[in-house]
Structures are given as C-alpha cells and as structure tokens.
C-alpha cells in the first residue's frame, strides 16, 4: 500500500507539489502522469526518501518515510530515471553490493535470485563484465534487477523505458504484471502514454504541482468529457483545460 496525505513541497514561495493525496493498494499499477515540470519527479524523490517534504505524510506499507526511513526503504524498490551505477564493478558485483545494503543473507537465496533476474533481462552472460562496458539499455535493465533483488512490497518507478529496445520494453511490462500478481503496489511515472494506458489500472494526472484528475480510463474520459478511446487526447484535454482555467483565474496579491 502506498499512501500520500496532503503531500507538499515548496522551494521558497514556489510550490513544486501542493496538497497531493492518493492511495495505491496492493496489486495495482498506478500511472502518475503530467507535463514536464509538473512535479512528478519531486513527488517520487520524496517517496524514495531523497527529498524532505515541506508538509504531509508518505506511508509505504504502513511505514512512515520520514519517521521510519530504514523500515520504509527496506520494502521499497526504487527505479530512477537517471540511475547511478559504479562502473568499475561488474554486473554481478553490483548486485552483491545492493544485497549488502539491504543486509540480505545468502541463506535467503539472494544469489540465486540475482542470477534469475540477470537471466530474465538477458544479462547473465554479462555478469562478470564491468558496467562501463554496458549499453544504456543494459544499465537500465541492471538497475531494475537491483531494485527487485530484495523482493520489495512497493515499486516506485520513474521513466522505466528510457533506452530500452522493444524486447526490453516487453520484458519490463511482463515483469510489472508479474509483480502486481504478487500483491506489489506499483507507482509508475512515465511520458509514454501508450504504456500507461496499457498496463495501469488507474491514472493520476498532476499539473503545476496539483493533482487535477484521478481514476480509471473510463473515469478520466468522463472527467475530460471526451469520447476518445486513447489516453493521449484525454491527457491533452485535461491538462489544457487546467491551464485555461489558470489563465482565466490568475493568482492575486
């Protein structure tokens, strides 16, 4: 379960995220969409414990990210849009390093788990090669493997498809569906609207730091007063309507 309650982040007088509240139950892929600069990455960084909220609450499987950071991170799998990897490690060594961070016991089978993940992402034959020799897509698949190594209950993902070829994209989609089937809560931010439409049960749209729409595809269609079957025109109508409302009601003071 992911719970965000009145989450707010200010930089001076600027609100990057304002009063954001939502829930993602176990077994759901939740799509988090918005234009550039809408507040998506700021929200995700707060959820991952990389940025402190100005106010509000973040609970991951009941663990308060601010007050119980170790417990929250222990059940979180975080896949950033621009992952940092230690290039002088091999792929296998990097997963061993991640296992150490999570204090995984070899008796729990993390080594076998790492090999299964590397094999799934077509990286097993590269496990003894330095990461500096990996392509961008291979690095992305490795960081996804690392995020899944400790079997997290919550997955927070920022642009997972960057640099992936069509096979890599299909592997990620397959993996997300498998994790949801295991009861994992998945929070997915992406600019790839077709993917969000395909894999997400519900979608939230953030614009200028505020959640402007939330629901299933049918509910978003009703909110946009649209008959469009595809998400892209619905998304454009909702964000454009919100921008138009702002122009008609400019801030005062």
Using brief descriptors, characterize the structure shown.
253 residues; Rossmann fold; six-stranded mixed β-sheet
- How many helical elements? 9
Order of helix and strand elements from N to C terminus: EEEHEEHEHHHEHEHEEHH
CATH topology of the domain at 1-52 and 182-253: Rossmann fold
Biggest beta sheet summary: 6 strands, mixed
Termini Cα gap: 40 Å
Q: How is the quaternary structure best described?
A: single chain
The helix/strand class is alpha/beta
Mean pLDDT equals 90
Give me a quick take on this structure.
By secondary structure, this protein is α/β, with parallel strands linked by helices.
Description:
- The chain has 253 residues and is of the alpha/beta class.
- It has a domain at 1-52 and 182-253: P-loop containing nucleotide triphosphate hydrolases (Rossmann fold, 3-Layer(aba) Sandwich).
- The protein has helices at 40-47, 69-74, 91-101, 110-120, 136-148, 166-181, 193-199, 217-223, 231-248, and strands spanning 2-11, 14-24, 29-33, 55-60, 63-64, 76-79, 154-158, 185-189, 202-207, 210-215.
- The strands form two sheets. Strands 6-7-8-3-9-10 form a six-stranded mixed beta sheet, with helices on both faces. The protein has a four-stranded antiparallel beta sheet with strand order 2-1-4-5.
């Amino acid at each position: 379960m992911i719970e965000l309650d009145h989450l707010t982040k200010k930089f001076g007088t600027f609100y990057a995220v304002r009063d954001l509240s939502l829930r993602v139950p176990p077994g759901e892929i939740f799509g988090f969409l918005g234009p550039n600069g809408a507040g998506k990455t700021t929200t995700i960084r707060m959820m991952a414990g990389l940025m402190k909220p100005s106010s509000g609450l973040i609970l991951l499987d009941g663990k308060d990210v601010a007050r119980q950071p170790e417990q929250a991170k222990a059940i979180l799998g975080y896949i950033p849009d621009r992952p940092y990897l230690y290039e002088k490690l091999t792929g296998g060594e990097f997963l061993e390093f991640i296992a150490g961070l999570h204090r995984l016991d070899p008796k729990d089978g993390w080594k076998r788990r790492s090999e299964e993940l590397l094999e799934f992402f077509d990286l097993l034959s590269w496990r003894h090669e330095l990461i500096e020799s990996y392509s961008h897509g291979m690095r992305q698949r490795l960081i996804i493997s690392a995020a899944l190594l400790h079997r997290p209950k919550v997955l927070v993902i920022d642009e997972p498809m960057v640099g992936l070829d069509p096979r890599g994209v299909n592997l990620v989609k397959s993996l997300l569906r498998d994790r949801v089937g295991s009861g994992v809560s998945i929070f997915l931010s992406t600019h790839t609207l077709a993917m969000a439409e395909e894999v997400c049960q519900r979608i939230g749209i953030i614009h200028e730091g505020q959640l402007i729409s939330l629901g299933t595809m049918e509910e978003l269609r009703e909110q946009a007063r649209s008959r469009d079957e595809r998400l892209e025109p619905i998304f454009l109508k909702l964000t454009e309507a919100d921008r138009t409302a702002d122009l008609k009601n400019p801030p005062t003071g």
